[in-house]
Design goal:
Helix 1 (17-30) packs across helix 11 (240-256) and helix 5 packs parallel to helix 6 (134-142). This protein has an eight-stranded mixed β-sheet, with helices on both faces. It has one domain (5-256): P-loop containing nucleotide triphosphate hydrolases (Rossmann fold, 3-Layer(aba) Sandwich), CATH 3.40.50.300. The chain contains eleven helices and eight strands. It is globular and about 50 Å long. Helix 8 links the parallel strand 7 and strand 8. Helices cover 40% and strands 17% of the residues. By secondary structure, the protein is an alpha/beta fold. The two termini are 16 Å apart.
Length: 261
């Protein structure tokens, strides 16, 4: 059975997208699943957040242009069963380079297809750039499901509206008719403020069960963990942030139909 591919995306920066990518991947691995995380963001925050270095030629950049394979660039991490395909600064140039190529929106899909079968992964996660550019559209074309992290703030619904509009276009134009919105993750929740509670209530009213039950809190420990190159379950396994991502991983595994090892 092919490993499902999840794109974790929001065109707005600072919503907890990479935090969710890293910690969801780590928690799924901790639960016994074999996970591959691919860092598609030239800022390489997922790469440094797992304690790996940005290395020239070590990202998806060259394989997307037809030079080598994704498989040969995958690295193990300190988290058992979690592998990473890192990013690098050169990935900034991919937007320009890919636009000149034939079938440019399906370059990542072609590279990923061999990894879905025969490599033993239970799930593949794509940490997308904070934009709706060519790399993010490549991720949408290559994915089965879309996970949208959404910050508990006033303009949250505008971000989802943009993503769902692009999702509809990706399906209707034939780029990827099978792509589905698997879930919305509410992040940076502050239980002390009425704003956070109102935003969560409003998003749930609009999207119903598409919104994950788990709400990710705004905590200092979650913010600190990347500077130590560790996911929250390694940095502070008994924190509120670790507990939240563990429950989110359980929800994601259930929606994907992954068997608990």
């Amino acid at each position: 059975m092919s490993a499902p591919v999840l794109a974790i995306a929001n065109q707005k920066g600072g919503v907890g997208k990479t935090t969710t990518s890293v910690n969801l991947a780590a928690c799924l691995a901790q639960q016994g699943h074999s996970v591959l995380l691919i860092d598609l963001d030239a800022q390489a925050n997922a790469t440094s957040g797992l304690g790996l270095e940005k290395r020239e030629g070590g990202s998806v950049y060259r394989p997307l242009l037809g030079d080598g394979t994704l498989a040969e660039r995958i690295q193990p991490t300190a988290v058992p069963r979690l592998s990473l395909l890192p990013s690098e600064v050169d990935l900034c140039g991919a937007e320009v380079e890919l636009a000149r190529m034939d079938d440019y929106l399906n370059r990542l899909k072609k590279g990923l297809d061999p990894l879905r079968d025969g490599h033993g992964y239970d799930v593949i996660l794509l940490d997308c750039p904070p934009s709706l550019g060519i790399l993010t559209l490549n991720a949408f074309a290559a994915s089965d499901r879309l996970v949208v992290p959404l910050q508990c703030e006033y303009f949250a619904l505008e971000g989802v509206a943009m993503i769902t509009r692009v999702l509809k276009q990706v399906r209707e134009t034939g780029i990827n008719p099978r792509l589905e919105l698997m879930g919305i993750v509410m992040t940076m929740f502050d239980a002390r403020t009425r704003l956070s509670q109102n935003v969560v209530a409003e998003v749930r009213q609009h999207f119903g069960e598409t919104v994950f039950e788990t709400v990710i809190p705004r905590t200092t420990r979650l913010a600190e963990a990347p500077s130590f190159g560790k996911p929250i379950i390694t940095y502070d396994p008994y924190s509120a942030g670790a507990a939240a991502y563990e429950v989110l991983a359980t929800e994601v595994a259930k929606r994907l139909g992954l068997r608990t090892p």
